Amino acid sequence: MTETVDASESGLVERGLTVRRVHTTEGVHPYDEVTWEQRDVVMTNWRDGSVNFEQRGVEFPEFWSVNATNIVTSKYFRGAVGTPVREHSLKQLIDRVVKTYVTAGVEHGYFATPKDAEIFEHELIWMLMHQVFSFNSPVWFNVGTSSPQQVSACFILAVDDTMDSILNWYREEGLIFKGGSGAGLNLSRIRSSKELLSSGGTASGPVSFMRGADASAGTIKSGGATRRAAKMVVLDVDHPDVEEFIETKAKEEEKIRVLRDAGFDMDLGGSDITSVQYQNANNSIRVSDEFMHAVDAGNEFGLRARTTGEVIEKIDAKTLFRKMAQAAWECADPGVQYDDTINDWHTCPESGRITASNPCSEYLHLDNSSCNLASLNLMKFLREDGMFDAELFARSVELVITAMDISICFADFPTEPIGDTTRKFRQLGIGYANLGALLMATGHAYDSEGGRALAASITSLMTGTAYRRSAELAGVVGAYEGYARNADAHQRVMRKHAAANDLIRTYHHNDVAVQRLATREWQEGMRVGAANGWRNAQASVLAPTGTIGLMMDCDTTGIEPDLALVKFKKLVGGGSMQIVNQTVPRALKALGYQDEQIEAIVEFIAEHGHVIDAPGLRQEHYEVFDCAMGERSIAPMGHVRMMAAVQPFISGAISKTVNMPESASVSDVEQIYFEGWKLGLKALAIYRDNCKVGQPLSAGKGAKGAAEPEKVVEYRPVRKRLPKKRPSQTVSFTVGGAEGYLHAGSYPDDGLGEIFVKLGKQGSTLSGVMDAFSMSISVGLQYGIPLEFYVSKFQNLRFEPAGMTDDPDVRIATSVLDYLFRRLALDYLPYEKRAQLGIFTADERSAQVNNDYGTPSDVDLEGMRSSVEATPSRPAVAAAEPEVVEAHSSTELLELHLGKAADAPLCMTCGTKMRPAGSCYVCEGCGSTSGCS
Questions:
Q1: I need a surface site. Which of 241, 290, 320, 786 has the fewest CB within 10 A?
Q2: How far is the C-alpha of 403 from the C-alpha of 611, rounded, in Å?
Q3: Where is the Ribonucleotide reductase class II vitamin B12-dependent N-terminal domain (predicted)?
């Protein structure tokens, strides 16, 4: 616990914080309370066995998982590997960061006495060591090193309607990407392509300038790593170029499909994806209440000139809203940001409107500003009796928010305007991880009134405590510089938060206790703030917590529910195993099940991956174990309702993507976007399964074929032999210089019944293997296994020989089997099934180009073919990898249970399948993220 004391009463020259112990014990250093052990960290790419990272003899507490150890060692330890200056102990890492914070706190007068500074140091060490909270990644990268002391992960830039400003935008984004962070900005000040320049010419419009920024982002690897830069581009809904902006990524997605079918490598990170534009940014539309009311009423809406503000065009609001939903349905962009809601909760409107967000949409504040983040592990506050320890949580928030504010005193920033704004407004972003695990452990369904009440109460307590501490800090070291000008607005927003807290409807003794303490925190915070002001213009966000969530051994990230009930766990000494999430037994105990019942249910889940028909589990408890994916997945509106429950208690917004099934319609997307506005969200993005081509291992293609057999499958399979005399065809082929023949025999009713492949010299091992393979496929076909099932499994397999073919319909093959089954699909499958598999003839691809782009001149497909043929050494990587047959991450493990692939990218560092973390993805193997860390 910390409190403020007046210097005149204590006899000190200045006043400061008196810090009381929360987690630590007087006279015992936190490091001496735990058992430490030596470990070897060797991280490999499981696809090729290469070693990505190796450091032996590192020191960690015995209760840290292997995964957390690996990620911290490889990501956060500083110094050249293999040299004496390389950090080798968690103690060194924590000391490097914490001592920097404490030294700055002392220098800037935060503490009443040296003893208070020492207690503060010990408390931070204890919480970091015990995985109670973590700072965001830039803190671990930079603080206490010779590098610039950048502590922020989130940045918002600004661009004006001048060429100098636009070119400066490119430069500033490049600096931020180089440092490993992401940035967002609003392009709406740039005049539209429907307006004139002062010289009399027509303006280019913001979409045109997006091309240059996109190319820059694709060129500069973020933080010197292999992942792409993270950026957000926002445009106001009343901008005259809004329709062009909405359709940019959807049109590029169509282009990706054409190029992919022509044999180009269009995977995320593929060698040819760089030829497609606008792929390095998330796009969002800023919608106003005026526009949403026009959509609701079916009225027209005016698009306004950027230079004069006059309406230059009127459009049907419903039609534009439909185009937004259609584009999001096709490629997941654009998301929406609700402008009036955002600015209604703005603490500093006198200093400027909030026009944009960071790439993950959780940080929303002034242009040219930044936010440093920290997240608490909620499971660390769940007591053995099932109660959430609200008092301990509040006292921990005090310590963390104090440390976060101190960091601004010594922090460096990528540009001077960002540094100036951040020092004047001191924006912070405290948040949490493991909410999904906490709700399950306490017996709450994620999509339930009780679950939302507990989540809202905890979020309210966190932000209320953070602002109360901010008000106390204002009495010690002064309010933020912009407070005086915005005092009325800031106090109004505090009252809005407090009023929302009073409206929480509680259902359980847990959320009752948390909400009661939250009420006291808001009341005390407003009382102290009225006298002192506040130290920080904003206090909280809900970030993805990707890498730091793994550092804290969290089961769930940010506000997300559990991904699935089974997970992938690395073991000490190497190897791995599948385990049922440890939250499940705790949840069953909270629901009143006995040890024998729990053991049986857990065993069932381990085998099946879900709880349906688990022995002894009551059906009314199924919902407690609903997850983001799996047999019982949470409905899209369940995610939206959870976001709406906690949004009134967040200074910023929530990094979260609402996942929708592939079967969702455009109308479903419209409903989600409209309900998000009605429920008071600040930002919302959706992702429809399998909507993007440039995504390794996209879901559903293989599963669909298997789910729609041409024949009725009997309970006992019956072999349908071919008649003595049957139609057949023989195809000669060449793949990467290897020549062969494919003989295919059919039933008289036109169904494929057998294949024989001749490849290699007679009597050779290769020839024998192909003969055996042909017989096994033929027997499978005769037992009723659909051809499309085999196609989905064998297309895109990669091994030599591979490369150019002599088949005009299949120009490039990644292996002989890839070619054979694509050829069989073209010859024996109807168009509808081939379309699901992404396999088309050359004529069909040309027809698609003509239909999608108007005339063949828009996309020179023959030119593409010519360029392919002219470069036979081009590596061919198709859109989908082979189906996972061995799990290397929780996502891949889930795929094995579901029998279908999940829409998530492969980690470019270690090759494992990433898992969702807010609106980004995180790799469980090495901690890499697809967005800002």
A1: 290
A2: 43
A3: 41-131
Copy the structure tokens of residue 486: 């915005």
Burial of 157 (0-12, 13-18, 19+ CB in 10 A): buried
Same domain for 388 and 514: yes
Same domain membership, residue 241 and residue 97: no
Query: What is the chain's length?
Result: 933
- Whole-prediction pTM: 0.78
Asked if residue 169 and residue 143 are part of one domain, the reply reads: no
Measured over all CA atoms, what is the biggest interatomic distance in the chain, rounded to whole angstroms? 107
* Confidence category of residue 577, pLDDT binned at 50, 70, 90: low
Q: Is residue 415 part of a domain?
A: yes
Distances (CA, A) of 631 to 298, 407, 913: 39, 45, 20
For the question of residue 331 being annotated catalytic, the response is no
Find tokens 């041409």 and name the residue. 710
Number of domains composing the chain? 3
pLDDT at 908: 63
Of 173, 254, 362, 881, which is the active-site residue? 362
Position 758 in a domain: yes
Show which of 528, 548, 568 is a domain's final residue. 548
Domain harbouring 208, CATH code: 3.20.70.20
The predicted pLDDT at position 851 comes to: 65
Q: What is the DSSP letter of 77?
A: -
DSSP string, 247-297: HHHHHHHHHHHHHHHTT---STT-TTGGGSSS-SSEEEEEE-HHHHHHHHH
- Out of 70-79, 515-524, 846-855, least confident range: 846-855
Same domain, 140 and 45: yes
What pLDDT was estimated at residue 572? 59
Looking at the structure, tell me whether residues 142 and 186 fall in a common domain: no
Confidence of residue 612 (pLDDT cuts 50, 70, 90): very high
pLDDT digits (tens, 9 = 90+) for 519-567: 999 999 999 999 999 999 999 999 998 889 999 999 999 999 998 898 8
Q: Which of 142, 186, 283, 358 is catalytic?
A: 358
- 581 is a catalytic site residue: no
- For residue 861, what pLDDT is reported? 40
334: preceding bond cis by omega (within 30 degrees): yes
- Determine whether 358 is an active site residue: yes
Catalytic option among 360, 371, 627, 926: 360
Could you tell me if residue 764 is inside a domain? yes
Residues 28 and 142 in one domain: yes
Q: Is residue 803 part of a domain?
A: yes
Looking at this protein, which amino acid is placed at residue 720? K
Q: Mean pLDDT for the chain?
A: 86
Task: HSE, CB side, 13 Å, CA atoms: give it for residue 595.
Answer: 0
Both 127 and 185 in one domain: the answer is no
Highest mean pLDDT among 311-315, 732-736, 755-759, 871-875: 311-315
